[in-house]
């Protein structure tokens, strides 16, 4: 309560704005994920690794717009590309050369030959699932229990439930995440546990016997929304083999991992190539953008006109100019070296604090992504996450950090995302806040 009061005392203008905002904006925010209790922090501006709220409080931004600002705020290369493009016209709904260059760059990085663009992660997973359904002529799909893949109906299923009431690992329940999702849609999405090949194979065979073979399995190769959960050795290879054997399109949702965990996302990091990938968030340095990539065979259903992959703003020139500048000029081999180095420093520092204060948790990460998970045991799937995760410590850590100039996603199930602008000082500020919390709690 002390840390909460301390923060709220610094957020007077945000509070005033919130009171006005609530009159005509539901809950005073543009999206429910921007809520914070008792009121949201309204932002003013950002520069590099830092941002300022409307009360003038300065933070190192470790949330980075839910992982989208890998290039840092107001990156000069992105600003130049977007300004140049805007001066020449910002929207035509016609192809332009940046689309071609970005598709070539993504092919090089992810090893998949055919691409299309859209505007967000949700659009990417929606398009990918439709393509998989068209390619296989099947209706049912599979996802990992607890994973988030965006806000369209097919994937707003089995995300955050009471783990005592989700069924056994062979028969996890399909449960709507919030109201407004038709029952018929819920029944078409079948969740399976992460890191469990046996359960996956069991469920696939059962679906086949019932006459409902799955069109696709959509999954993150490394889970990113229940702390960070890496695949166990052999798991992804097993998933690849099983899906191939059963004619199921394997979609790696790289909306969070693509470009952040390494130049070729989780696909290249873990060395398993899916049939499709979905990318968004950090693709265009803070402009709305999304991409789907796939094999020639699967993407043929788009090329021959069977599937309409469309959108007024798909391949919007501003987003594509930003994506091109980002891929060509910002996310260079040197930038990835820098991100790896900073992340290692941060994780090592967290591990040292955890060891020194004998804290229940561990640090891990890849590329620009990392997190401290407050759990006495390693998280391997949704159930172990919900059983192990310490919500009170998550909240306390968030408050300690916010009060000491470090901004993370409220709730802290989100990991940190570094940007190319994060430096030693940013990491030291983070570590000092974390150590103060560990010290105070164990004193
Ligand atoms: N897929 C994953 C793995 C995500 O984490 C998210 C968003 O957090 C999405 C898809 C949806 O992306 P967007 O919010 O851009 O629609």
**Amount of helix:** 40-55%
> What is the count of β-strands?
14
Question: What does the main sheet amount to?
Answer: 7 strands, mixed
In DSSP terms (H or I, runs of 4 or more residues), the helix count works out at 16
Mean of residue pLDDT? Answer: 96
Strand order of the largest sheet: 4-10-9-8-7-5-6
Annotated CATH architecture of the largest domain: 3-Layer(aba) Sandwich
Question: What ions, cofactors and ligands are bound?
Answer: pyridoxal-5'-phosphate
CATH topology (fold) name of the largest domain: Aspartate Aminotransferase, domain 2
CATH homologous superfamily descriptor of the largest domain: Type I PLP-dependent aspartate aminotransferase-like (Major domain)
Structure at a glance:
This protein has 443 residues and is an alpha/beta fold.
Structure overview:
By secondary structure, the protein is an alpha/beta fold. It folds into two domains: 180 residues, Aspartate Aminotransferase, domain 1, CATH 3.90.1150.10; 255 residues, 3-Layer(aba) Sandwich (Aspartate Aminotransferase, domain 2). Helices cover 42% and strands 13% of the residues. It is built from 16 helices and 14 strands. The strands form three sheets. A seven-stranded mixed β-sheet has the order 4-10-9-8-7-5-6, with helices on both faces. α4 runs antiparallel to α12. The model has no long low-confidence stretch (mean pLDDT 96). It binds pyridoxal-5'-phosphate. The site of pyridoxal-5'-phosphate has 14 residues, from α6.
């Amino acid at each position: 309560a002390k840390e909460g009061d301390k923060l709220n005392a610094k957020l007077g203008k945000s509070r005033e704005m919130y009171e006005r905002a609530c009159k005509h904006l539901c809950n005073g925010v543009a999206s429910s994920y921007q809520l914070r209790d008792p009121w949201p922090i309204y932002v003013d501006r950002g520069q590099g690794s830092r941002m300022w709220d409307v009360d003038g409080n300065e933070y190192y931004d470790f949330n980075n717009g839910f992982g989208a600002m890998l290039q840092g705020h107001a990156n000069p290369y992105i600003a130049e590309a977007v300004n140049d493009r805007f001066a020449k016209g910002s929207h035509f709904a016609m192809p332009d050369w940046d689309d071609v260059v970005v598709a070539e760059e993504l092919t090089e990085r992810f090893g998949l030959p055919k691409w299309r663009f859209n505007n967000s992660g949700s659009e990417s997973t929606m398009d990918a699932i439709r393509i998989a359904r068209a390619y296989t002529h099947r209706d049912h799909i599979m996802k990992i229990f607890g994973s988030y893949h965006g806000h369209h109906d097919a994937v707003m299923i089995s995300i955050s439930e009471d783990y005592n009431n989700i069924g056994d690992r062979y028969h996890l329940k399909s449960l709507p995440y919030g109201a407004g999702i038709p029952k018929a849609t819920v029944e078409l999405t079948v969740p399976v546990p992460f890191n469990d090949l046996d359960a996956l194979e069991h469920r696939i065979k059962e679906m086949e016997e019932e006459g409902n073979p799955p069109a696709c399995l959509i999954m993150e190769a490394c889970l990113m929304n229940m702390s960070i959960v890496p695949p166990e050795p052999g798991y992804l290879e097993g998933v690849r083999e099983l899906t191939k054997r059963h004619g199921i399109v394997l979609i790696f949702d790289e909306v969070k991992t693509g470009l952040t965990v390494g130049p070729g996302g989780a696909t290249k990091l873990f060395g398993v190539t899916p049939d499709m990938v979905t990318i968004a968030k950090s693709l265009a340095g803070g402009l709305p953008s999304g991409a789907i990539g796939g094999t020639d065979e699967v993407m043929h259903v788009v090329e021959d006109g069977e599937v309409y992959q469309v959108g007024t703003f798909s391949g919007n020139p501003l987003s594509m100019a930003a994506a091109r500048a980002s891929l060509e000029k910002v996310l260079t081999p040197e930038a990835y070296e820098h991100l790896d180095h900073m992340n290692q420093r941060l994780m090592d520092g967290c591990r040292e604090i955890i060891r020194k204060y004998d804290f229940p948790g561990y640090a891990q990460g890849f590329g620009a992504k990392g997190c401290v998970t407050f759990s006495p045991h390693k998280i391997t799937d949704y159930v172990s996450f919900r059983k192990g995760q310490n919500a009170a410590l998550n909240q306390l850590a968030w408050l300690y950090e916010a009060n000491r100039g470090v901004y993370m996603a409220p709730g802290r199930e989100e990991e940190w995302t570094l940007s190319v602008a994060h430096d030693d000082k940013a990491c030291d500020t983070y570590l000092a806040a974390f150590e103060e919390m560990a010290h105070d709690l164990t004193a």
